[in-house]
Design brief:
- The structure is a single chain.
- By secondary structure, the protein is α/β, with parallel strands linked by helices.
- Helix content is 27%, strand content 24%.
- Strand 13 (295-300), helix 11 and strand 14 form a beta-alpha-beta unit.
- Helix 12 packs across helix 13 (374-386).
- The longest helix has 13 residues, at 374-386.
- It is elongated.
- The mean pLDDT is 93.
């Protein structure tokens, strides 16, 4: 048999949960690599091997393995459950030749949790927050937050299994659901210390109860949606769906102009979008629904709009949107380079903003601007010419039907110029 590294999945019942081949390869190994918990659990089976604790030293594992194999000495790496399900398996498979790696998976803790609940899981999504302390979740958190991917999955799926950690534990995740207004949407079961003598599996509990609970480690959470939400409108949302300041005409990018502007931004599912001069948030929030795997960064300087944006954000049920109070270019330095930018208001810094935006756009990205004054239109066009951008202008003037006595007439909306630009050669 070719000398190889064997990656063995282990449950918390230790050697009792291992098959014959796994036990044989573990006992024959001259080098055993694992974390401290599994090392202690299987200490009786690895008395003759050299031990390596991989905790905090993941990058060293392939080095240790290759050194041992070079001396024709077999290696065993121990991991929890199924190493190819949010475990070390994928990491090693990418770094070792296939012929040097033998994988012997065990049951995953996810399978065990669903089995204890008697719940079919073929439709379940799987998430892991088994990493460093992510910190408490705040509405509007950016993709760098350790719970961001989980929150996005909660928005999309009806059944979700979550591999937790001592820091990113069930109460913290329940508090995240509360912060996002999802406390009534889900119920949660927690499977604790599976295959140990103190194993305990709760039934499905309210989110509020889990937020206040205490649970044994390690544990797995099962999130089950109680009611499937209605599918939202993705494009062309009515103006009345947004909370907005309302003088004579609402301070909002109207639906007809918004639709054309979003189309000109050339959005994809993964687009990173800047919304400068967010107003009521209509453009950025509608973009967030379209860019489900992307993120929207919005800024607005007018304090009177803050509450409206916050209310709209909460009502729309999205988590890929971050709002900042300030005057651009404030905050822009901390945002990732965008695939698309919308400017609905410039605060008198238009020429500077255009230069910054064109300089930060990713290859093939589009800058789209809305203007209602000749002066701002002129400034934009002259700036784009000076910067050598590829640009065009279209004017939108929609008219909407309005009742007059027992008949209807057309009521004209203000004309809006839509300026679209991209870096020279990117069009």
């Amino acid at each position: 048999m070719t000398v190889a590294c064997t990656l063995i999945g282990v449950l918390d019942d230790g050697a009792a949960g291992l098959g014959d081949e796994a036990l044989q390869r573990l006992r024959e190994a001259k080098h055993v690599i694992t974390g401290g918990r599994l090392l202690a659990l299987l200490a009786g089976e690895i008395t003759q091997a050299q031990h390596y604790d991989l905790t905090g030293r993941l990058s060293q594992v392939p080095v240790w393995i290759n050194a041992a194999l070079a001396n024709n000495e077999p290696v065993a790496v121990l991991a929890s459950g199924d190493p190819l399900c949010h475990g070390i398996g994928g990491y090693l498979a990418d770094r070792l030749p296939h012929v040097k790696l033998r994988i012997l998976p065990n049951l995953s803790s996810i399978q065990l949790a669903f089995a204890e609940l008697g719940l079919p899981w073929q439709s379940a999504a799987i998430a892991s927050v088994h990493s460093k302390d992510a910190g408490e979740w705040q509405r509007g958190a950016m993709p760098e937050h350790g719970l961001y991917a989980l929150m996005q999955q909660c928005r999309r799926h009806d059944l979700l299994a979550v591999l937790t950690s001592p820091d990113n534990n069930p109460p913290r995740i329940a508090r995240m659901l509360q912060a996002e207004g999802l406390a009534e949407a889900f119920e949660i079961a927690v499977a604790q210390a599976l295959k140990q003598s103190v194993q305990a599996v709760t039934g499905f509990l309210p989110v509020s109860a889990v937020a206040e609970g205490t649970y044994a480690e390690p544990n797995v959470m099962i999130l089950k949606r109680k009611l499937t939400p209605a599918a939202p409108v993705l494009f062309g949302v009515s103006d009345d769906c947004f909370q907005q300041r309302k003088p004579e005409k609402g301070l909002i990018t109207k639906r007809e102009v918004r639709a054309v502007s979003l189309a000109r931004m050339q959005l994809t599912r993964r687009s990173i979008v800047w919304d400068i001069g967010a107003g009521s948030g209509s453009v950025g929030l509608e973009a967030a629904r379209l860019c489900v795997d992307g993120h929207i960064y919005a800024i607005e300087k007018n304090a009177d709009d803050l509450a409206n944006v916050e209310q709209n954000h909460a009502a729309w049920g999205i988590s890929n949107y971050s709002f900042f109070h300030g005057k651009a270019p404030q905050h822009l330095d901390g945002w990732p380079d965008p695939d698309a930018i919308f400017i609905g208001g410039s605060g008198g810094e238009l020429a500077e903003l255009i230069g910054i935006c064109l300089g930060r756009l990713r290859q093939g990205g589009w800058l789209v601007m809305n203007f209602v004054t000749l002066e701002n239109l002129s400034t934009a066009v002259e700036t784009l010419k000076r910067l050598g951008a590829c640009w065009d202008v279209c004017q939108i003037q929609a008219s909407r039907s309005s009742p007059i006595l027992d008949m209807n007439r057309l009521q004209a909306e203000n004309p809006v110029w839509i300026v679209s630009a991209t870096a020279s050669g990117a069009a």
